[in-house]
């Protein structure tokens, strides 16, 4: 069900290591984690870690950024297509990378900095982009889909932002994207990790088109043969392959009234209490799984996620990414909690699905500690987002204070 607790999904998405079949037209050399192709005026970038569900790794971020910067500056490049090898688009951050670096201070700071910086450039890219999204598109992986001019999903696509369930927070720009969804759907997605199907992703406004999976290969060929970045021409081609979006009766998007009422409350505690009241009403059996999932999530992470999305409502994408960077670095440094490492342990290391959160309940999460991790860094230690077109590709990690020799 779309409303079921997200732990099973996360376990499948982040632990599954072998796919035996590849999606059509996705065969690329296995040794390259990102493959870039230049075909006249079209550029195709393939995320190529199929056995890891194309999870975001340091090398993947570096190569992807290199291609995208090169192509934006290339006058011959007009259209950029982004896709994933195998049966996933991108499952988000490689949590084992974070876990393995837990005992070394700021071991993962560079990849975090580079990817958040890249998220801004993807969202503001100057060339026409099309994402062809098959299978899982989760967390940071969905940041390669949602902001694009054209994002094509299929009936096999699954979207989720499940970070709170393993002690993390809604990042990679999603405090911005979620805060702009209709009503309080963004809070629902951030706090529950609820899954959306392909047609729900389009109906929610997180993707632009739904295309049957068997037509994706042919659509890619047509886009390449179009050999143009003209948005009207690209839209026309995609619409030739698109299916009408008709939501199932049980879709979470048909529960807007309840979601808006419950997830508009001021605190996570009030949201849960409101859901529990609604669960007793006829037709609301779906709420039980939602409440169960939230109660299994990190109390600290839930409170961080709610506050972050709420703050995002009144901020630009650049401001949201800067805040998310601070939160992530503080979480990785265990400034107020070790919940993220405990969540990863329970999900991907010991696989017991029984994390021991500290603190263990929402009422024990101190406001003062939350304030601490939301505080701005010193100016030179913030994520540097370009402030003008002339300096659009400035602010790279290697020119930051973090990369300076000690």
From TrEMBL:
Pathway: Amino-acid degradation; L-valine degradation. Residues 1-27 form the signal peptide. GO terms for molecular function: 3-hydroxyisobutyryl-CoA hydrolase activity. Keywords: Hydrolase, Signal. It catalyses: 3-hydroxy-2-methylpropanoyl-CoA + H2O = 3-hydroxy-2-methylpropanoate + CoA + H(+). CDD domains: crotonase-like. This is 3-hydroxyisobutyryl-CoA hydrolase. It comes from Phaseolus coccineus (Scarlet runner bean).
């Amino acid at each position: 069900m779309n409303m079921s607790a997200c732990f099973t999904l996360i376990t499948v998405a982040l632990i599954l290591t072998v796919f035996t079949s590849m999606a059509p037209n996705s065969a690329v050399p296995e040794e390259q984690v990102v493959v870039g192709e230049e075909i006249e005026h079209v550029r195709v970038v393939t995320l190529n870690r199929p056995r890891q569900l194309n999870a975001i790794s340091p090398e993947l971020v570096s190569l992807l950024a290199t291609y995208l910067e090169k192509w934006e500056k290339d006058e011959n490049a007009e259209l950029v297509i982004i896709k994933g090898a195998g049966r996933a688009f991108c499952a988000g951050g490689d949590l084992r990378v974070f876990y393995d670096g837990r005992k070394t201070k700021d071991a993962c700071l560079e990849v975090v900095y580079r990817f958040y910086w890249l998220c801004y450039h993807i969202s503001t890219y100057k060339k026409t982009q099309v994402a062809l999204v098959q299978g899982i598109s989760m967390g940071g992986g969905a940041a390669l889909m949602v902001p694009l001019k054209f994002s094509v999903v299929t009936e096999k696509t699954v979207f989720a932002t499940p970070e709170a369930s393993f002690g993390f927070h809604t990042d990679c720009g999603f405090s911005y994207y979620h805060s702009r969804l209709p009503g309080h759907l963004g809070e629902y997605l951030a706090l529950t990790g609820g899954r959306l199907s392909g047609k729900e992703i389009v109906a929610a406004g997180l993707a632009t088109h739904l295309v049957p999976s068997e037509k994706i290969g042919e659509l890619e060929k047509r886009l390449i043969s179009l050999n143009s970045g003209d948005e009207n021409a690209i839209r026309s081609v995609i619409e030739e392959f698109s299916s009408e979006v008709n939501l199932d009766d049980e879709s979470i998007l048909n529960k807007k009234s309840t979601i808006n009422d419950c997830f508009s409350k001021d605190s996570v505690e009030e949201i849960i209490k409101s859901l529990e009241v609604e669960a007793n009403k006829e037709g609301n059996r779906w709420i039980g799984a939602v409440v169960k999932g939230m109660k299994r999530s990190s109390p600290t992470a839930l409170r961080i996620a709610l506050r972050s999305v709420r703050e995002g409502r009144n901020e630009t994408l650049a401001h949201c990414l800067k805040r998310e960077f601070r939160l992530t670095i503080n979480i990785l440094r265990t400034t107020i909690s070790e919940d993220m490492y405990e969540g990863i342990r329970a999900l991907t290391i010991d696989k017991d699905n029984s994390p021991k959160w500290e603190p263990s309940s929402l009422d024990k999460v101190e406001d003062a500690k939350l304030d601490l991790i939301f505080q701005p860094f010193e100016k030179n230690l913030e994520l540097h987002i370009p402030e003008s077109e002339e300096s659009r590709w400035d602010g790279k990690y290697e020119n930051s204070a973090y990369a300076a020799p000690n």
